[in-house]
Amino acid sequence: MSAPKTFTTAEVAKHTQRGDVWTVIHGKVYDISKFLDDHPGGEEVLLETAGADSTEGFEDVGHSEDARELLQKYYIGEVEGGKAAAPAKPTAAAPAPAQEQGGSFFWAIPVAIAAIAAIAYTQLQ
């Protein structure tokens, strides 16, 4: 039996579009492209974490043993270092009171930080 293929987080991060969706769960890389239409929770939840580590979301849902066995069908290798980057979290809109006070720009700070972090992450790979 040969060693499993190893993928970098940058390689995994390239697979985020419908028809080419990879995810990482517990350090293992899965090509779930052909599972999108069959996922009981809908394809959107899979696309939200495409190209990133989905372990937390996978475990939070409490998948059955059958789901865990089915996952093995899509296994393609391991992620280098055992964990991929966490999926980008959507930024929340500014709270209503700030909007009533003339449209505060406090929401721009976390957006700018997230953008800078994403750029730095890709440049350091």
From TrEMBL:
It is found in: Endoplasmic reticulum membrane; Microsome membrane. GO terms for molecular function: heme binding; metal ion binding. It comes from the Eukaryota. It is a single-pass membrane protein. The chain crosses the membrane at residues 105-124. Keywords: Electron transport, Endoplasmic reticulum, Heme, Iron, Membrane, Metal-binding, Microsome, Transmembrane, Transmembrane helix, Transport. It holds the Pfam family Cyt-b5. SMART domains: Cyt-b5 (SM01117). GO terms for cellular component: endoplasmic reticulum membrane. Its main location: endoplasmic reticulum. Residues 4-80 form the Cytochrome b5 heme-binding domain. InterPro entries: Cyt_B5-like_heme/steroid-bd, Cyt_B5-like_heme/steroid_sf, Cyt_B5_heme-BS, Cytochrome_b5. Belongs to the cytochrome b5 family. This is Cytochrome b5 heme-binding domain-containing protein.
